[in-house]
Design goal:
- Strand 7, helix 9 (223-231) and strand 8 form a beta-alpha-beta unit.
- By secondary structure, the chain is α/β, with parallel strands linked by helices.
- It has helices at 10-15, 45-50, 64-70, 74-91, 102-110, 129-137, 167-179, 190-199, 223-231, 242-245, 254-268, 298-307, 312-328, and strands spanning 3-8, 53-61, 96-98, 114-121, 140-144, 182-184, 205-206, 235-238, 273-275.
- The strands form two sheets. Strands 1, 2, 3, 4, 5 and 6 form a six-stranded parallel sheet that branches.
- It binds zinc ion (ZN).
- Zinc ion binds at residues 121, 186-187, 208, 278, 281.
């Protein structure tokens, strides 16, 4: 089953293992060279092949706290990580292409190449619409509006669910949709997601978010917001992060991921379902026991969905067609 995975931090992980890093990471220079082909991450080129990857969304995660500590602007950190991403893709350009739309994705596939999209997790690197324009022209195709810090864009779920977008956040959402960039509401507060849904003229995404009714974590989506995103025509990328799957069980279980997908399906239908694993963006709590360790294990989730009663047409939608549909809205 072809897979479009909406969220992975692999390129940021590689950035901090290359020479280009913030000062407190200098000691990592001792580590063996890590790159897209060879690393100890959950994603590399061979694993993407094993997962039958149709497209991988690579986020550049910008840690505002580290930026402040080291007096690096979020924009500069974005540019550094972006250059490193380009380097990685260029080095392995016989195997993978950086793409920015469905036509380029199809072209990469026709050459038997993998396809990667670039996106950014933390909207605060944008402080003007001119910068947004530059990011778009560099190929950035979604921005996660906030991470876990309150910014000039809005308030994250980690801080306050009652306060939402700031004035610039409203402006940015409108400008992103006009440009052809997806708005990602994962990490945003409940009120922030309502704000986005209210002004959205195009489908939005929650690139890596699970179900709050099954696991009561602020990062997970309430029923109201799941329905709202479905009505907007958007998608929710369900992830395999242990603390977003289950409050008690610390082990990543395939069945639990299926239960989150089933819940959303029953509540809001089959068109809103997608996959956004958040690989290389979280630490495993029980590495020996986890049933999903890398992206190469995703075919097991497809099998489990079939066993749970989903048709192969529905699994195809969950694994790639729904995400493809969203991508056609940004061309
Ligand atoms: Zn995240």
């Amino acid at each position: 089953m072809q897979l479009i995975d909406l969220h992975a931090d692999t390129l940021t992980a590689l950035y901090y293992r290359s020479g280009e890093k913030l000062k407190d990471q200098e000691f990592l220079r001792e580590l063996p060279v890590a790159n897209l082909a060879q690393n100890n991450c959950a994603i590399d080129l061979a694993k993407l092949r094993q997962a039958d990857s149709l497209a991988q969304f690579f986020v550049l995660w910008l840690n505002l706290h580290a930026c402040e500590l080291h007096k690096v602007s979020p924009w500069d950190l974005f540019m550094k990580q972006y250059q490193q991403l380009r380097q990685q893709i260029d080095t392995f350009n016989s195997q993978i292409s950086l793409v920015s739309n469905v036509a380029e994705l199809v072209a990469a596939r026709a050459q038997n190449k993998l396809a990667g999209f670039v996106c950014v997790e933390e909207g605060a690197f944008i402080s003007s619409l001119e910068q947004l324009d530059v990011a778009y022209h560099l190929g950035v195709r979604y921005i996660t509006l906030v991470w876990n810090y309150e910014t000039h864009i809005g308030v994250p779920s980690a801080i306050d669910q009652q306060r939402g977008l700031k004035p610039f956040g409203f402006e940015m959402v409108a400008a992103m949709q006009e440009l052809g960039m997806l708005v990602d509401v994962s990490h945003l507060s409940d009120q922030g997601v309502r704000d986005v849904l209210q002004i959205a003229k195009k489908p939005i995404i929650a690139s890596h978010s699970n179900v709050r009714a099954l696991c009561n974590h602020t990062r997970n989506l309430s029923d109201e917001l799941i329905r709202g995103i479905a009505q907007n025509g958007g998608v929710i990328g369900v992830n395999c992060v242990p603390y977003f799957l289950d409050e008690q069980d610390k082990t990543i279980r395939i069945q639990r991921m299926v239960e989150h997908l089933e819940y959303i399906y029953r509540l809001a239908g089959e068109d809103v379902l997608a996959i956004g694993n958040d690989f290389d963006g979280f630490g495993s709590l029980t590495p020996e026991l986890d049933e999903i360790k890398t992206i190469a294990d995703l075919p097991l989730v497809a099998d489990a969905l079939i066993k749970a009663g989903f048709s192969s047409r529905q699994v195809d939608k969950i694994f790639n067609k729904n995400a493809l549909r969203i991508l056609t809205t940004i061309n």
